[in-house]
Amino acid sequence: MTDIATDEVLRFDDVSLHFDETTALDHVSFAMNAGETRVVFGAAGSGKTMILKTALGLQKADSGRVILFGEDVTNFKESALYPIRSKVGVLFQEGGLFDSLTIAENVAYPLVNQQARRNGDGPLSKAQVDARVQEMLNFVELGDTLEKFPSELSGGMRRRVGIARAVVTEPPLVLYDSPTAGLDPITANLIIHLIIKERDSRNTAAILVTHRYQDGHLMANFRYNPDSGQIEPAREGEGLGGVKTKFLVMNEGRLVFDGSETELRASQDQYVRKFVKY
Amino acid sequence: MAARAFRNIVRTPHYLDDIFIQMDVIGVGSLPIVILIGFFSGIIMGLQMGRALTTYGAQGQIGMIVSIALVREFGPVLTALLVAGRNASGIASELGSMKVTEQIDAMRALGTDPIQKLVTPRLIAMMFVLPLLTVIADFIGLIGGALIAYGLLNMTWAEYWSTAWRALIYQDLAQGLIKPFLFAIIISLVGCLYGMRTTGGTQGVGLSTTKAVVISSIWIFVITSFIDPLFFT
Q1: In chain B, which residues touch A (CB < 8 A)?
Q2: Per-residue confidence of chain A (278 residues) as pLDDT tens digits?
Q3: How far is CA A267 from its chain centroid?
């Protein structure tokens, strides 16, 4: 059995997943520790989203082991997964916001449904929930959208609300599924800045699935400065940049690259090189 | 899914707000069409049966014929078919849309059992309101039959209601209430099942909606065919 580091948040051990004739994940193995970032590249249908869904237990692996916060969750029943899922925030590709709830209710949803399970000290009061929701919507610069419905917001705004909902319970691991897909460059950069800000404010571990090299480049080389409130280039030796950010490249369910940005840029693999663009 | 939906009826958390919302959507929302169809069913039955009975000079039995046919068969089946067309499709399309936009995955990721939150409230609401809708459809249908008996067959109100009421025995009422209860289970679970299994984007939602209506309608007739012989004697 593989040794598990005490600060390890997620480990895939030879994980495979199939749908009928299609192989979604093919013997995928990687691990990440608290505070680290993994940027996942890959063509459409290469298995990027399946990594996130399998990590959360939304899809069951056919073989191999998924270890989340030190627990082997591979064969956990759905009800047993709820407490451990409360330690993971997730932003779905389409936002995954509930159409029938207002923005405030969407962001409050994990607080109401998860907090009691995590702390065991009962639900938060309505005033506490409202205050936290307002704080998180201010964080994503949408503090005036409380009573709106998701259908009233643009795609970029929905993603930002999705980020607020993903991190409202302050989970130690956050999964972002293509947060910049289909967005204009300005909004896409704003989203990545928010993700960096969230990551560095609380030293959160994050997995970012994306098609855009610049998203990964920003994650690896920029940091949030709480003093200036700005995103700025990480200085050598700060630890927030290249050292803690690694890149994974998926191809037809296989993990074909796992390494730093420097190694990614130096790779001679034709498929891997397709994702290195300036 | 059906087993989990039933098991969740006695498990916490209970989403009472969702149950009441579904009762409103299914019950109050379906009421106008159920009243309309119930009324015209009674009129049509009164007209057709009245003509046949007049041939034998037995038009005085119109109340009995209308009440037995409505309470035993047409009330439950027509109401169930209407609710299947209106609500099995609604449930399948709503849940199907949630599935393809990852809202159901989000629900699971955020610590909520989608069966508990989405399926069980619809099941409970349907089991409660469909028998009530059926009783209302039966009564309105009897009023439709009464109008024909009074207007075209020269019967008094008292004669019609007396024969209609006396024709019914305990088994008729039991049959008329057991059926909608079973239909409610089928309509809600089939709608939820096809909704939750939706794949393939908006086209998949349309397909799930169609399947939900077709399959639940077929099951309504299959169940009727099995229930009727039990009360035949």
Answers
A1: 97-98, 101-103, 105-113
A2: 444 556 899 999 999 999 888 889 999 999 999 989 999 999 988 999 999 999 999 999 999 999 999 999 998 888 888 888 889 999 998 788 999 899 999 999 988 877 555 455 567 788 889 999 999 999 888 888 889 999 999 888 998 999 999 999 889 999 999 998 888 888 888 889 989 988 988 889 999 999 889 999 999 988 888 888 888 888 655 554 445 899 999 999 999 999 988 899 999 999 999 888 75
A3: 25
Chain B residues close to A84, C-beta within 8 Å: none
What are the structure tokens assigned to B220, written together?
A: 């309504």
Cβ separation A96–B97 shorter than 8 A: no
CB B167 within 8 A of CB B157: no
Rounded CA-CA distance A7/B127 in Å is 50
Indicate yes or no: CB of B106 within 8 angstroms of CB of A92.
Answer: yes
Residue in A98, A113, A117 closest to B103 by CB: A98
Q: Determine the distance in angstroms separating the CA of A117 from the nearest CA of chain B, rounded to an integer.
A: 9
Give burial (CB, 10 Å; 0-12/13-18/19+) of A173: buried
pTM over 0.95: no
DSSP three-state, residue A13: strand
| Chain A residues near residue B103 by CB distance under 8 angstroms | 96-99
Cβ contacts (< 8 Å) between A88 and chain B: which residues?
109
Q: How many CB pairs under 8 A join A and B?
A: 51
* Distance (Å, whole) CA B225 – CA A198: 61
Domains delineated in chain A: 1-87+172-278 (3.40.50.300), 100-171 (no CATH)
- Residues of chain B found within 8 Å of residue A53, distances taken between Cβ atoms: 105
